[in-house]
Fold these 4 entries.
Entry 1:
Amino acid sequence: MTLNKLERTLSIIKPDATRRNLVGSVVRMLEEADLSVIAQKRLHLSEGQARDFYAVHAERPFYASLVDFMTSGAVVVQVLEGEDAIARNREVMGATNPSEAKADTIRARHGISLEQNSVHGSDSASTAASEIAFFFSEVEIFPNPIQ
Ligand code: ATP
Ligand code: MG
């Protein structure tokens, strides 16, 4: 029997969702997918933070608009933990474009547009590690980091 790997991933509930009071709904969907919220805080990103977080997209035509959107209201940043948490979270989030997302995913249920798609989730183990460190120090994460 192979045991699936216990992982952590970074999740962001984006401004379109916080504005519509959907934090509880998103957390419920994550928990129903066996993802545990082990750290969480509500922030208003500065332009510099949003630019740095999405630096990988700096050359893309949607970058400036994405930074504007991500600084347009509150976000909730979270560390999720669970078996195969990175892939599992991407699955419960649904496709980037809400109109292409499978039924019963967060983006199908709550996303407004390709840009205003309600949630972010790390896409690999290495981005999960760097994105968690971007927002959280070790003492903010309980229990302490996976050995
Ligand atoms: P995320 O990184 O937020 O989890 P993702 O990995 O599904 O989403 P990316 O390709 O990394 O999608 O794009 C990052 C974010 O940029 C998307 O979630 C969306 O908000 C926005 N975005 C992506 N493509 C476009 C586009 N063509 N037009 C407008 N916004 C876009
Ligand atoms: Mg991405």
Entry 2:
Amino acid sequence: MDHQTVIVLDFGGQYNQLIARRVRECGVYCEVRSCRTPLEEILAIKPAGIIFTGGPNSAYLDSSPTVSAEIFDAGIPILGICYGCQLMAHLLGGTVSPCDTSEYGKTVTYYDKSCTLFGAVDELPEKAISWMSHTDLVTALPEGFVNAAHTDCCPNAAFYNKERKLYAVQFHPEVNHTEHGIRMIDSFLKNVCGCTGDWTMENFARTAVNEIREKVGSGKVLLALSGGVDSSVCAALLSKAVGDRLTCIFVDHGFMRKNEGDEIERAFSGRELNFIRVNAKDIFLSKLNGVSDPETKRKTIGEEFIRVFEAEAKKLGKVDFLAQGTIYPDVIESGLGDSAVIKSHHNVGGLPDYVDFKEIIEPLRLLFKDEVRALGRELGLDDVLVDRQPFPGPGLAIRIIGEITEEKLDMLRDADLIFREEIAKAGLATKIHQYFAVLTNMRSVGVMGDGRTYDYTIALRGVTTTDFMTADFAQIPYEVLGRASERIVNEVKNVNRVVYDITTKPPATIEWE
Ligand code: XMP
């Protein structure tokens, strides 16, 4: 291991992933571990520092999650955030009590800049906004600690013991609303923990390639390549490590966007790997003949995908490793830490039983999405692949309402491309997190030249979101929508009307099916 590690000890807070991301953004590698992890296991990692996260409990209750107080004597710098701050106070002899008035949201905070966390942040004024979310507070500090911040309601909004390198903040520095909060985390990492910021994707790529080589030996690796960011970066990394002992199977179900199948093929044809593209459009279309129910479409495509993949994989004989593009949020969300399990991710735990392989490898399982993209760039992948927006497995099949035909697929592909071109021209491509066209099943009356038309309606959808679990409709300027609409009705046959979807998620979903 040629980088320093910080442990984010998870007490079940809602921002735990965000803390880990912030630490990585500061160029420091970190891992999220459950607060139930035995102390010896944590010490064996030789962490440069530990961050206690927030959590929904009260530190003074016996039933609440806790740690062995010996952790404070290990000489490792610790930063407690919110619940972590209260737990530190409680375990070291301070007092934690319920608030008279809970503090929630943006709060005026007064900082003592002689504390390293704040003093090293030049741009931080003595009075600034922090993000608070707590119903308990520290009313008496443990012996040896000094106060470093307060608010009108919270006398001990930050405190520390410099000799023991123990720091605590009641507010959430990881949340963007805390002014200069990320710089405070950076100061803890660099000035208290002595981290050098040695976590770079160049560094990761080098280490990962060596680890993969060691693990795979002379074995063969198989990867299902969808062309999405994760599987593409996974392919590029594996190909660098094991060359043509990697086989990527790209099942082209015919529901990709315009030219996308060819782009994926082109991106990988120059690399040292076995790239197999299965053009299965006709099989998929025939299986979906007459199907209009969304769930049946998804199920049919999912089953057929496995069948086609399996048939192709069987031709390879036994493979040693099956690679998956699982990434860190999938791992955390599947309940690695103490946070509520948000969703069971399909990539974690559910091993396919249809391919004969010895072991699974997940070379990206410790990376966040932005790191995966950075790694992709490091490995020389094209921007088209690295910046690709999320795209559902069943592809355009769930963006055509009702029955799917080749004609409808062509119409949707053309409309979708026009929308994407206009978004790009307006410089909005990276500002809107997902945007696409949907072919509704509705036809309406229009007029073209001197004639009456009775044609399809295209719906455009654009959303902004941080996690895709909730989303807002994107406020795309009317001029941009207008240009896209004008081009779509002029350039795409059998479309005479364009509408823009202005629903949030919930109650709507991002996709229409
Ligand atoms: P919804 O429509 O549920 O979509 O709001 C949330 C996000 O998930 C994507 N999505 C999928 N991704 N397989 C995938 O890999 C699927 O079957 C699938 N369905 C939806 C969707 O594009 C959005 O980003």
Entry 3:
Amino acid sequence: MADSHSVLHCRGRVLGLERPVVMGVLNVTPDSFSDGGRFVQLDDAVERGVQMAEEGAAIIDVGGESTRPGAQPVALEEELRRVVPVIARLRSRTQAILSVDTSRPEVMHAAAAAGAAMINDVRALREPGALEAAVSSGCAICLMHMLGEPRTMQDSPGYRDVVAEVRRFLRERAETCITAGVPGERIVLDPGFGFGKTLQHNLELLRRLRELSVDGLAILAGLSRKSMVGALTGRPPDERLHGSVALAVVAALNGARILRVHDVAATVDALKVVAAVQNS
Ligand code: 7PJ
């Protein structure tokens, strides 16, 4: 394999990426489409996070802002109230790397102080102050591509060459981080499946995923329960397990090192099978 970064440095911890690993999605939002608000309560969110770690998630991604198409923005204070206590309590309950899914520098600072070791930003540190906050935190950083903003991103997205354009964007954001002093071992790149992409765009990005690994940086893929699975299988979000696992397997075979998923146990098993084949 041409990929060169097989570890991720997360605030003093080193996560091995020789085999693909799972990032479990922990939404602490009342309007997240696939969990229907079941985890709004702090206790429930913490228990679900602990469970995902027990199921084999190497990373737990805690998010308080819904970024689904059409979602409304959340106030800063509300986002802090949702994510910081969950991260603080998970810190004492699990060894998993805790990630915060946010675009706001204030949330990055507070989450890192509470024990987060990774920042997952669907806006790739383009909000004012976000780059500086992420760099100084020492956290690993996931830079994701999105065309436009969540509210409008699915309104007829267009590209001349989707792979080239996403790659150019990810390279520019990675170079910005590296220039600011972040080593490549702290950077993860993500094409942002479904974020301003049609089904055809998503399929082409998945098929040509390896081409996005700028300078051998690790790639993260988030396909779990997305509308792409619905389009391919005709299933509603709560029946997209099998299609989602299939996409995670394809992504891993095409070079993804981190799979962001809702269904941790099923994906961990599937990736064990993939790793056995890859290392045989
Ligand atoms: C992604 C994400 C993704 C990264 C969401 C959902 C929508 N972060 N946050 N990549 N998707 N890095 O989970 O369906 O694909 S929110």
Entry 4:
Amino acid sequence: MSVVGIIPAGGSGERLGADGPKAFAVLAGRPMLEWSLEALAASCDRVVVAVPAGFEAAPDRIRGGASRSESVRNALAAAPEATVVVVHDAARPLVTRELVARCLEELGEDEAAIAAAPVTDTVKEGDGGRVLRTLDRSRLWAVQTPQVFRADALRSALDAPAERLAAATDDASLVESAGGTVRLVEAPPENLKVTTPLDMRIAEAILESRC
Ligand code: CTP
Ligand code: MG
């Protein structure tokens, strides 16, 4: 078994509004990407990072694509030896080694095992400014990364037109559409995603409290 980590880090970080790409913004003393690299390296034989143009200089850095899923596809193409893949966004620097290991353990007979948190807000479906209905919260999960896949299932799910890849907000949804089964792995609440400057401050406070 060859376990390859893939970190999509090829976004521009528009909503963060930093000087450069979000994955390279300094967070608690190191580029944000490095927190995820460290957590994945503990369980992976190799980690391939999809980066924005101009950041490919280091080993195992490849150029990202126009969408997140295209970045994942480019990185996977650079890892033909992979039999199991751990996909994890650079934008979730609070991931722990334990969560990565747990997703790998839970893969079992399924095509994927993904980190997710039970939804705590009440969620309603809307149409314009009006509520259509209230969803049954007890069945809802907010999905995160890491997402662990059988490499063949992910390769064939990513073999799709650019528009379809651009519309997918995670990789597991592509595997689900292809009939794959996906296991939910409950993640700790602090595995948050850094999108805005406020998220950056919260992530920094948590990372500093861990040291
Ligand atoms: N990503 C990527 N390639 C892209 C777009 C996004 O590898 N073409 C990565 C980002 O670097 C990030 C993850 O996918 O680690 C989740 O994306 P998001 O949080 O939306 O990051 P950005 O696209 O960089 O941010 P924004 O949407 O605010 O520009
Ligand atoms: Mg984005």
